[in-house]
Write a structure and sequence with these properties.
229 residues, alpha+beta, Dihydrodipicolinate Reductase, domain 2, 3-stranded antiparallel sheet, 37% helix, 10% strand, globular
Length: 229
């Protein structure tokens, strides 16, 4: 079990894939948010065709890491050891979900910068457009199966949300812990049953390729193709 990212370069990731093939062992890469109950509900709806053909997706990660975070380890905030900043270290989780739901990424155009930190090498802000092989045109699609009543959002919000009581998560499901446990359970079951893990090296390499493509695009100021192994 490898903590995300699988590595910080595609060459290093490919060495892991080669070692996996040569040894005949199973390798999983931590991508616990694929195991969140909310993620699994959306993924199931996509696979069932309930959302029709997906034509676009928006991924946003408005997280903050203060100075103390980067000071907690000399490797943090470095290109050589951390591989990047807000994208490689935090937003990779959200990019992983985007790839899992939208398919094969083919091109990325990005801007990135260090706007709110000092004494770090990497970006703390970035924005990108990713083209997927399945994209066509942008449309608005709203899905609410059946006449189920809407539920109000938690205070202080007062607007309604298009979900039903069956979609409500329990208190335990809001925690991150169960998703990590679910991924480890999948890993153990994959070993015992001799089936593939749900999130393996190829999936992790595909996400890494998006992240590295984003950095290349931000450096060059042009769209770049995403490298596939």
């Amino acid at each position: 079990m490898v903590e995300k990212p699988i590595d910080v370069s595609l060459e290093a990731a490919d060495r892991i894939l080669a070692a996996e093939r040569a040894s005949g062992t199973k390798v999983a890469v931590v991508s616990q948010h694929r195991f969140d109950p909310s993620t699994e509900q959306v993924t199931a709806a996509i696979q069932a065709g309930d959302l029709g053909r997906l034509t676009s997706g928006i991924a946003s990660t408005a997280w903050w890491r203060g100075r103390s975070y980067y000071d907690s380890g000399r490797w943090r905030g470095t290109w050589a050891m951390d591989g990047g900043g807000a994208i490689m270290n935090q937003t990779i989780h959200t990019i992983d979900l985007l790839v899992a739901m939208l398919g094969v990424p083919t091109e990325v155009f990005a801007y990135a910068g260090r706007l709110a930190h000092e004494r770090v090498e990497v970006e703390d802000t970035a924005v990108a457009v990713v083209r997927f092989a399945s994209d066509d045109q942008l449309v608005y699609f709203h899905h609410n199966p059946g006449p189920a009543p809407e539920l109000t959002m938690p205070l202080p919000m007062t607007e309604t949300n298009q979900v039903t009581g069956a979609d409500t998560l329990s208190a335990d499901q809001h925690r991150l812990g169960p998703a990590h446990v679910a991924q480890f359970a999948d890993f153990v079951d994959a070993i015992r049953s001799e089936r593939p893990v749900r999130v393996g090296t190829r999936e992790a390499r595909a996400v890494l390729a998006v992240v590295l493509g984003l950095y290349r695009s931000a450096a060059s100021g042009t769209p770049v193709p995403i490298e596939h192994g």
